[in-house]
Design goal:
- This protein has a 17-stranded mixed β-sheet that branches.
- It has 5 domains: 118 residues, no CATH class; 227 residues; 64 residues; 33 residues, no CATH class; 35 residues, no CATH class.
- The longest helix has 23 residues.
- It is built from 4 helices and 52 strands.
Amino acid sequence: MVLTSTSTTAGPFVTNGTNVSFQFLFMVSDPSDVSVYHTNASGETTQLTGGVDYTVSTVAGITGGTVITSQALDSSSANGTLLIKREVAITQNAKIRNQSAFYPSIHEDALDKLTMIDQQQQEQVDRSIKVANGTGLTLEIAEASPGCPIGWDPTGTKLINLPTSYSAYDTALGDADDLSHGDALIAMKQHLTGAVRRTSDSKAQETISVMDFGAAGDGVTDDTTAINNAITAISTLTAPRLIFPTGVYKITSNINFTVPDNTTIEFIGTLSAAVGNGITAVTFGSSGKNTNHLRVKGLWLNRSTGYDTSSGSIGVKVQDCVYSDFDIRCIQGFTFGLYLYSESGNGGISYCQFKFGTIRNNAWNLYTQCYVDGYINENNFYGGSFAHDSNYGVSSSSVIRACHVYLSYFAASPLNNNRFFGPSFENHFTPYSFNGTISGTTLTVNSGTAPLQGMWITGGTIPAGTYISSGTGPFTLANVNGASIPSQSNVSMVGMQGVAALISGQQNIIFAPRMENGPGPANYQIQFSDQSAYCQLLGLGFNYWNVNIYDSGAANCYQTRDGMTLQSSSAASVLQIANTNSTSNHLWSGKNGTASPAVETSWIDGDGKASFAGAIAIGNLVSSSSSNSVTNKVKINIGGTWYYLLASTSNS
C-alpha cells in the first residue's frame, strides 16, 4: 500500500473517567503494532497491556483504527492523558525462495514495514538532542564518573565530566557568589499580556528579607546582628523594601533603621526584645537628618524580659521622620512604649500617620519629647487600645507613674496640631491608697510614697473627690471648694497612678475617646497642663464626665457627658451664632426636657428679641429711688425709652 502519512502517534487524549474510545489515523499492519501509554493526574506514566487493558479494532489499512480501553481512566476532577503510538518490531518476515512465486504483495508488505520502521526511528530522532549543521561539535558522552555533572569543556566543543567544585562554585546554578551565576541564569516571565522576560535574580531583588542575612526567626536565635546587617545593606539602595517573614525575631540590643527616604519595612513576623533596663529596642530615623516617606507596616514588639516600669527603656523610638506612615500592631513591656523624639527644626516629626492596634503595659504608652529646635506637629493618630492590665507592676510600697498619651511642653517650638481619632484609654490596676496630714492649710503626704501624678482625697473633713495636682507636696489647700480647712491627720487619699492623657502644647485634639478604669472612673483623667492652650476634647466618647477633665491651661475646650465647655483668651465672643436665613429665625432655643416631647420654653431670635415662657429671675438687685442710677439694676428699652427694674416693687 501507499504510505502518505508520516505520523506515528495519536494524542495525547484527555482521560476524564468517561471516555473509553480513542481513534488513531496512522496505518498499522497488525493490532500488535499499537502501543498505548497512560499518564495519570500525578504525572506517572505506564504502558498499558494489549488484550488486557485495551483492544484495537477497526484496523483498516491507511485509515487507522480505534483503541478501546477496558475501563474509563481517571476522573472528572483528576484528568490524565492517553498516548497511542505505532511501534513495529524491527524484524524481516518476507520469504522469497529460488524458483518460487514472486508475488508483488510480499515485496510491498516488506517495503511498508521498512518505511514504518524508518518513520518510527525518525520520531525518536526528532525528540533527541542534535548538533546544528556546520558547528563541528560532538555530543559524545564521556565515560561515566559518579557524582560529576556533564558540561561543555573550556573550548565549548565537546561534553566532559565537570569537577563537582567547578560546577558548584564557579559556573553552575549553585554558584551564588558570582552575580552572573545562580538565579541570574534562570529566566522567568509573568503569564500576562505585555509581560517581559527577566531573571529570577532581578525578581528576587524586588523584596529583601532579613532571612537573606541569616535571621532565623525561631524566637531562640539572637537575630540582632543579622537584622542590622540587612539594614546596612539596604541603606545604599533607592526606595528599598525590607520584610520580616513569618516567625519570631529575637533581639538583644538596639536595631536602628537608619534607612533612605521612601523605604518600606514590613513585619509579617514579630519582634521579641530580650533587652536590659534603659535600652532602646527599635529606632526609626536618626539624629541630624530627616527621614522622609518611611513606611512601617505591621510592627509587633514585646519585651520578653518582663515589664519595665521605671528604668527608662524604650520600645520604639521614632526620630525626625516626615511624611511617614506607621502601622503598629503592638508594643508592650517598656518604660516608654512609643517614644516620639525630635531635635530637627526643619521637619521634625510632622505630617505623619500613626495607626495603632494596642500599646499596653508601658509606663508611658506614647511619649513625645522635643529638644534644641525640634518639632512634633501636624500628625494624625488613629485608633489604638492604650491599656494597663490589672497585673501591671504595682506594689504596696510604691506608686507607679503611668500615662497613656503624653504630649510634652517645649518652649522653643510647642507641640501643636496633633490629632487623635477614637483612642481607647483603659486602666485596670488598683490605685495605691495612702494617708496624709493637714496642718492649717497645708497637706503633707505621709512618708513612704513615691512622686505622684495627682491624687484624690477620699476621707476626712475635706469634701471627698477633691483633686490635688501632681508632685510630692506639701500641698496648699486654702479655699478648696470655698470651705475653710480644719487641721486633721490620717486623711485618706488615693494616688492617680494612671492618667489617660497629659496634654501640653497648642491646638492638639482628641476626638471621641473611650475612658475605662477598672477601679472606678472618679480618679482617671485627661489632663490639660498649664503649658497647654487651645487644645480640645471633642465628640462624645465613652464613660467620661467633667470630673475626668483637669484643665490648668489656657482656652482649652472639651465635651463630656456633662456638656460642652468652651473657653477663649480672645477679646471676641467665646461663641458666635448666626442664622443667615431670616432675622426672625431662632439663634438659640431652650427646651424643657422633662416634658415628652420636649417643649420650647425660651429662645433668642436673630434680631435680638428674647422670649421666655416662664418668669425671669435676676439676682443681686438693690432698692433705689433714683431712676438715673443704673447700679445693680436691669435696663430695658421699650419703644425707644429706657426703663430700669429696681429691687423694690414700689419703684417699678
